[in-house]
Amino acid sequence: MLDRRNLLLAGAAFSALAAVLRAHTALADAKPATFEVTKPEAEWAKHLTPQQFQVLRKHGTERAFTSPLDKEYRPGTYACAGCDLPLFSSATKFDSKTGWPSFTAPLANAVGTAIDRSFFMTRTEVHCRRCGGHLGHVFNDGPPPTGLRYCMNGVALKFTPQRAPS
Asked: Checking CA distances to 64, which of 2, 75, 97, 153 falls within 20 to 30 Å?
């Protein structure tokens, strides 16, 4: 029987399905870029953990507050977990209180960006310029000096602490 409750439930289910299809289409319609490091999907899956593969290759997002790198504040460098390209310096890291490692700026020639129109939003996606791995997004609500917040998935990064001077 089609009553008000069932009509609302059907509408909600249709809206959720439309959102999923729109997100998939937005990613599928993106122009494939050429990157220095390329591998077949099966090889990426062997090289990465399942969570890294989901984030870096499938544009996933890790749960907020789950990455130990969110609270990592030693001097060092954050590199791509897919290809080891250095991406961020700890000198630009700050606590955004979002649950993801955040930076005010990447290293020179380290990242690329693309428009992400998934989930009925328009955001700027950040990826590794060498392998194309999805890292996170950049927002205009960061602190000085750039006013930017590079909100990265910790699972997409590898941290290497700076060596103590000998």
From this structure: 75
**151 labelled catalytic:** yes
Name the active-site residue from 80, 128, 131, 151: 151
User: In whole angstroms, what is the distance from residue 90 CA to residue 94 CA?
Assistant: 8
Q: In which domain, by residue range, is 137 found?
A: 35-161
Residue 1 shares a structural domain with residue 55 = no
Confidence (pTM)? 0.78
76 and 153 in a common domain: yes
For the stretch 49-66, pLDDT in tens is 999 999 999 999 999 999
CB count, 10 Å around CB of 102? 24
77, exposed or middle or buried, with CB in 10 Å at 0-12, 13-18, 19+? middle
Pair 64, 141 in one domain: yes
